What does this fold into?
Amino acid sequence: MEEKELECCDSNEVHEDLLKIVNETMPEETELYDLAELFKVFGDSTRIRILFVLFEAEVCVCDLAQALSMTQSAISHQLKILKQSRLVKSRREGKSVFYSLADGHVRTIIAQGREHIEEDL
It folds into this structure.
């Protein structure tokens, strides 16, 4: 990708009317922090791969480990992070624990991310 120099204004003029709107609509700092933390969770390709498996089916750790050629321990570690971020949920059935997407938002976030990166291809 070609790197371009960032363009800046030729004069230093503050647009007070625009800043007023921005200041009125800016979320609280805690909400911005939580949003940034959520997007950090999507910053790991293993977690993205797990989510793609869960798009197709509710599965246990054994299935995920087999599908992704990883150890159950490594999968469990990533599932813990995904669960803490409320991106996946689990349910116990006998001796097995099955994981699935927490809700439709997870699929939407990934779909919009894919759409964004494919825009200029």
